[in-house]
Design a protein that fits this description.
- Helix 3 runs antiparallel to helix 4.
- 41% of the residues lie in helices and 23% in strands.
- By secondary structure, the chain is α+β, with helices and mostly antiparallel strands.
- The chain has a 4-stranded antiparallel beta sheet. It has a 3-stranded antiparallel beta sheet with strand order 5-4-6.
Length: 119
């Protein structure tokens, strides 16, 4: 399962579920999205992220990405590892992880999106 993020101007990025879910959890822990949006963003529920929210996400990620190693991966529980975590789904993070480079791509999308839909 994957997610499409559709910017106000129609540009899209695709994100695999195993990368999107840790991203959503990171945003939730930081209070960047209201709880209902967090819940809906876990599913392809046409969740709307406003331009202001997208800019706040980009600003947060600017600072956050400066604190993690470039080769790092953020796990579902928020911990950061280097290398590739096991994808057996048996651990507490279920193998879900987003590479730092993908978070940087998401940050850049947020900054220029004017807001977006999660589909």
């Amino acid at each position: 399962m994957g997610f499409e993020l559709v910017a106000q101007d129609g540009r899209t990025i695709s994100i695999a579920a195993d990368e999107w879910l840790p991203t959503v959890e990171l945003l939730a822990r930081e209070g960047l999205l209201e709880p209902l949006k967090v819940a809906l963003a876990h599913y392809n529920a046409c969740t709307a992220v406003t331009g202001d929210e997208a800019r706040r996400i980009a600003a947060f990620l600017d600072g956050y990405l400066a604190t993690v190693p470039p080769e790092g991966r953020v796990l579902l529980d928020g911990s950061v590892v280097t290398g590739t975590p096991a994808r057996n789904g048996g651990g507490p993070t279920g193998g879900y992880a987003v590479p730092v480079e993908r978070l940087a791509h998401f940050r850049d999308f947020c900054r220029s999106s004017g807001g977006f839909l999660v589909e």
